């Protein structure tokens, strides 16, 4: 990352209408995307970044504040600022909005991987993941359970080119969150997601897996997750049994 050609402070090509801290944020993001600082590693101090980009420390701090608010960086008192990982307690539940009735923090669910196969991506999946027609995808099917009762049935689609060697056993053996596995072993970090939520009635197949009656009300959650550069890397279609849980979101 060379600030001399990217920040407004030195007459580079960055758009003049972009606030300077946003330009610094974009430069830090570029370093994250390029792997200059790996998940879990410390980034340079605010003073070092300020000298590197030839801007004030306050400008760097504002850029880092936004990246921390977006869960891309984590500040640790007395230690510095680190690249966030999906193993962080705060972050590993960032994409899991299902909570038990009665409140409290989400609790870990037991995972069971039902299938993991490589097939040509169906047309709708290929469109969502920006794949070429006929390009291979990995389809993962799993359940999430509590106290032996299935709560979620997930159908997960991934670009096969990014997840070579992914198997159901490999996922089952990994003790952390699934996104932590994608991040640590495949170098794919989910940084944001879009969701579509609707109410549906369980068909016979889904009802059988979740142990509910056919026609029971379920929550259908379709999530498209993106990595750096707004590149889609996961399409997840889940069916949630909300008879003992609710879907919680915070609007800021």
UniProtKB/TrEMBL annotation:
Keyword DNA-binding: yes
Highest taxon of source: Bacteria
Keyword ATP-binding: no
HTH gntR-type domain segment(s): 18-86
Gene Ontology BP terms: negative regulation of DNA-templated transcription
Listed GO MF terms: DNA binding; DNA-binding transcription factor activity
Keywords: DNA-binding, Transcription, Transcription regulation
Name under which the protein is recorded: GntR family transcriptional regulator
Organism, as annotated: Sphaerotilus natans subsp. natans DSM 6575
């Amino acid at each position: 990352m060379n600030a001399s050609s990217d920040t407004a402070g030195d007459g580079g090509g960055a758009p003049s209408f972009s606030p300077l801290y946003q330009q610094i944020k974009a430069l830090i993001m570029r370093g994250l995307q390029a792997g200059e600082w790996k998940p879990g590693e410390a980034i340079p101090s605010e003073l070092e970044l300020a000298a590197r980009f030839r801007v004030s420390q306050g400008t760097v701090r504002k850029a880092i504040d936004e990246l921390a608010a977006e869960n891309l960086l984590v500040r640790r008192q007395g230690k510095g600022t680190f690249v966030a990982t999906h193993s962080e307690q705060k972050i590993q539940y960032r994409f899991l909005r299902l909570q038990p009735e009665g409140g409290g923090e989400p609790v870990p669910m037991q995972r069971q991987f039902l299938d993991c196969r490589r097939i040509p991506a169906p047309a709708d999946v290929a469109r969502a993941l920006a794949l070429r027609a006929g390009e291979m995808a990995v389809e993962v099917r799993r359940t999430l359970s509590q106290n032996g009762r299935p709560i979620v049935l997930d159908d997960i689609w991934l670009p096969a080119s990014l997840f070579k060697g992914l198997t159901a056993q490999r996922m089952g053996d990994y003790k952390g969150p699934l996104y932590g596995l994608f991040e640590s072993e495949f170098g794919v970090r989910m940084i944001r997601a879009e969701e579509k939520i609707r109410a549906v009635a369980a068909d016979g197949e889904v009802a059988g897996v979740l142990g509910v009656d056919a026609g029971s009300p379920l929550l259908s959650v379709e999530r498209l997750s993106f990595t750096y550069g707004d590149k889609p890397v996961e399409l997840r279609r889940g069916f949630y049994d909300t008879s003992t849980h609710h879907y919680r979101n915070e609007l800021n």
